[in-house]
Design goal:
heterodimer, A: 528 residues, alpha/beta, Rossmann fold, six-stranded mixed sheet, B: 353 residues, mainly alpha, two-stranded antiparallel sheet
């Protein structure tokens, strides 16, 4: 390995609208090195990469602090185009390919090899013809470096995802000045053998002297290919380790471990009632949050947490049960089978849902607070209506009284029950969502991402509220959250979802290592 | 911030049009035009159009947007009217219907057409979510053209409406012979000096508006509004969004049918063939001028819009004529400019939120 690092990031800090997302991050990569970056969602990985690529989100929000050096020279990357000129390439999570073009055309897109013709001599170089022979030769060479037998003439549409991924990589390799290549969760969409092949290809790319930044949740892959590993947590580098000085257990602990304090409520897990919600071989087709096969039992009177990394399927479970995305499998409530794919059936069975998409699914933003609170019970259970035969009219007085009750009880800060929900802060909107669910008088309350996008003070209020509902009213609650600490502070059991399945169910006071391992898709070793 | 929200509430376009109306009225006074006649014809025009403009409301609220295809409802209403006239003619030997009964029969006969067509049209609009307005416009144009053929072949035999030679229905069918013309206008009409208030006409518009208002406060009406303003919310609340959109479309079509019958009795004729072609645009422009957007509307928008837009139509013509005596189409031109300008303006605001 050369003595000088090809990329050096020094003291990188970045804040968005007053929220510090990166604190003094340092990173050094040698040519030919494979450097792994691990961290939970929100640890700052993507922000770091956006800085490296000069993405607009960085510069339109006030830039960043710290310095970037490439091959020893300080650089200031202002746009993705400049990043490309500096020899930085990226293999995207979502493929940036044109389906109807061939593999070779995609590899050469916007960098086509041209040859002059009669028309272009007359009317300018914009009309030169493509030199297909050379384009195919270049594409063939780039694909050859990856050791894959992809037909460069084949159109992208219809290729297996693995081949699309390799086409993306080949496109980057074909750029002659490529010095640094970033892989962002490259194996997320691949099958096992494809993933293995990809890891091998990454090692071969590095062997040619290209520095590789490898971002993934999968600790086993990190351990397999990386030379050095940087662990990010809450925007800070918590550790940089050489591969042979660390192990999966340590990485898992570093990734999850929190300095933040939380009180587990382990004392209450004894009061376990009868099963109230049973889910068997449950599959949900929710884009980006596929649930592949989940078996889960929720007991009367408990708070069950559902955790895991983004994209692993935890969000899909509640959405599937509520009939919002196509689902299959078996769901029983109090032993009675629930009709799937029907929100009406789920609501009639006594479920209420506080969606993770508060503004999109949870609320009618331009309607009043009182109407939002009443709407669930009105549409779901026919409450708040005066009826005369087939005719009905809303019962304005009952709606008002109910709203006033919850505004007081949950402490919604508003000018009055007729204020539009759009004008409320995130935390108060969330309270309206919860009030709406409570008005439905549910047997089971499903809450997804209850604290997303609300400020710290309001977070605690919402969590306390859920705990009170459970303790004082004995309400069964299923909380889905990306914030492990918050699940550990209120739940009696926590199911970790990885790859669309339950990786394991942990107690809130289980060790950080166990949480980290389950989230990274590793089995827990007994006695660890 | 404060001035910003103030501007938003008033909305520049609405302000300009309201000012234009006021300007026209002042000019009319200054020119010593016949005010009594202007007020009388304004009132009757406002009443004529009120239910057709009201037909836009359920469409916008249920999420399909302004119903540019309300010509479907209009044609259903015309069919109902023709059927009633035909039946009256065939039963002439046995029984004579009073004009009131005949008018109710026309409405009654138009309902099955409107319900059926509304369901089919709603089903179609559910398949083209996102481009309803464009599809609706062309559905309207196509159906008017198809009906031009149909009017020729429909087996009506009443000589009051058939072409004198051969088969087919005339371009305009007079309603005067059976006492239908001005039926509502004259009902309880009040005369103050030279001003005539068409009480019955205005009352029937108000009655329709009241019924729609009650409907909007019912469970179905609330569900429809939820489905229109946030389909994903509605789905999560157990509401069938597609069903609500069909209900909205049916209601709009039915109101279109009733609306054209109210319009026609005031006008004195059923206008067939080209007649319904451009009527939807007037109704769309009126509710938009009243303050509605392509995704939000209420009864106030209907009332304000009908008064403003149709008031302008009536007042603009004599005012323009007074200035350009030898260019008599000036009034019509200014109406077109406002109508199409407002629709264009509303469409550009569609995604603005």
């Amino acid at each position: 390995m050369g003595a000088a690092p090809i990329l050096r990031m020094r003291g990188i800090s970045k804040s968005f609208h007053g929220t510090q997302v990166l604190h003094d991050v340092n990173l050094e990569i040698m040519p030919g090195e494979i450097h792994g970056i691990v961290g939970e969602n929100g640890a700052g990985k993507s922000t770091l990469m956006n800085i490296l690529f000069g993405m607009d989100v960085i510069h339109s929000t006030g830039g960043y602090e710290g310095s970037l050096e490439i091959a020893g020279k300080p650089v200031d990357i202002k746009s993705p185009l400049q990043a490309m000129e500096h020899g930085i390439g990226m293999v995207h999570q979502e493929f940036m390919l044109l389906p109807s073009y061939s593999v070779a055309e995609n590899i050469k897109l916007n960098r086509e090899v041209l040859k002059p013709n009669l028309v272009s001599r007359l009317f300018g170089s914009g009309l030169q013809s493509l030199d297909y022979e050379r384009m195919y030769r270049d594409a063939r060479r780039a694909l050859g470096r990856l050791n894959v037998g992809i037909d460069e003439f084949a159109p992208i549409a219809g290729l297996p995802v693995g081949y699309m991924q390799f086409t993306e990589i080949a496109r980057e390799l074909d750029k002659e000045n490529l010095r640094i290549l970033v892989f962002d969760e490259p194996t997320a969409v691949l099958g096992e053998s494809e993933a293995a092949h990809l890891l091998k290809a990454i090692q071969e790319i590095a062997a040619e002297g290209i520095a590789v930044l490898f971002i993934t949740h999968r600790l086993s892959e990190i351990m397999e290919v990386c030379h050095n590993i940087t662990v990010l947590r809450d925007g800070r580098v918590v550790a940089t380790r050489k591969k042979n000085e660390t192990n999966v257990l340590e990485l898992a602990e570093l990734m999850v471990g929190r300095s933040m304090q939380f009180n587990t409520n382990s004392k209450r897990q004894v009061q376990r009632g009868k099963p109230i919600l049973e889910v068997k071989d449950f599959k949900v087709d929710m884009p980006g949050e596929q649930v592949r096969s989940v078996d889960l039992t929720v007991y009367q009177g408990e708070i069950l947490g559902i955790g895991g990394l983004a994209g692993q399927g935890k969000i899909g479970i509640a959405n599937g049960i509520m009939g919002l995305f196509p689902a299959s499998g078996e769901v029983k409530i109090n032993g009675e089978p629930l009709e799937l794919n029907s929100s009406q059936a789920a609501i009639a069975a006594g479920l209420a849902f506080v969606s993770e998409d508060r503004r999109g699914v949870g609320l009618l933003l331009d309607a009043s607070i009182e109407l939002n609170i009443a709407s669930g019970a009105m549409f779901g259970h026919g409450k708040f209506l005066k009826t005369w035969g087939p005719f009905s009219q809303t019962d304005r007085r009952a709606i008002r009284e109910n709203a006033l009750k919850y505004i007081k009880q949950l402490g919604v800060r508003c000018t009055g029950p007729t204020q539009k929900v759009r004008q409320l802060s995130g935390g108060n909107q969330q309270k309206v969502c919860i009030a709406r669910a409570l008005t439905m008088n549910p047997k089971i309350l499903l809450v997804s991402e209850p604290t997303r996008g609300i400020d710290v003070g309001a977070k605690q209020v919402v969590l306390d509220l859920l705990r009170e509902l459970n303790e004082e009213l004995g309400m069964t609650i299923v909380v889905t959250s990306s914030e492990l600490a918050e699940l550990r502070s209120i739940c009696s059991r926590i199911a970790i979802i990885t790859d669309g399945q339950v990786a394991g169910i942990l107690r809130p006071d289980d060790s950080d290592v166990n949480f980290g391992l389950l989230m990274a898709g590793q089995p827990i070793e007994k006695g660890a | 911030m404060a001035s910003n929200s103030f501007l938003k509430r008033i909305d520049l376009a609405r302000l300009i049009i309201a000012e234009f109306f006021v300007f026209l009225c002042i000019t009319a006074v200054a020119l010593r035009l016949n005010l009594a006649e202007l007020i009388t014809s304004s009132l009757s025009r406002i009443g004529m159009w009120s239910v057709l403009v009201l037909a836009m409301l359920p469409a916008i609220v249920s999420g399909i947007g302004p119903n540019f295809g309300v010509s479907l409802g209009i044609i259903c209403g015309l069919l109902g009217g023709l059927t009633a006239l035909e039946l009256a003619y065939r039963l002439d030997e046995i029984v004579q219907f009073s004009p009131g009964i005949l008018f109710l029969m026309a409405i009654l006969f138009s309902l099955p057409f409107a319900l059926l067509v509304g369901v089919g049209y709603g089903w179609l609009l559910n398949r083209v979510k996102g481009s309803e307005m464009m599809i609706a416009t062309y559905v309207g144009f196509s159906i008017v053209s198809i009906m031009k053929l149909a009017w020729v072949f429909l087996p009506f035999t009443n000589p009051e409406m058939a072409w004198p030679i051969g088969r087919g229905v005339r371009v305009q069918v007079a309603l005067g012979n059976r006492g239908l013309a001005q039926l509502l206008n004259n009902f309880l009409a009040i005369r103050i000096g030279e001003v005539v208030i068409p009480t019955g006409l205005l009352l029937s518009g108000a009655l329709c508006a009241l019924l729609v208002w009650f409907f909007m406060r019912s469970q179905t009406g609330m569900a429809m509004a939820a489905a229109g303003s946030n389909p994903r919310f509605a789905q999560a609340a157990g509401i069938s969004v597609d069903r609500q959109r069909i209900i909205g479309t049916v209601l709009s079509t039915v109101l279109g049918a009733v609306g054209i019958l109210i319009y026609s009795q005031s006008y004195g004729f059923l206008q067939l063939y080209e007649g319904p072609m451009f009527m939807p645009f007037v109704a769309v422009a009126a509710i938009l001028i009243g303050g509605a957007s392509v995704s939000k509307a209420n009864i106030t928008h209907v009332v304000v819009g009908t008064i403003l837009f149709l008031g302008i139509q009536v007042v603009a013509v004599p005012v323009a004529n007074a200035f350009t005596a030898d260019w008599s189409s000036m009034g019509e031109i200014s109406r077109k400019i406002i109508q199409n300008g407002v629709i264009l303006y509303a469409l550009t605001q569609a995604g603005g939120e």
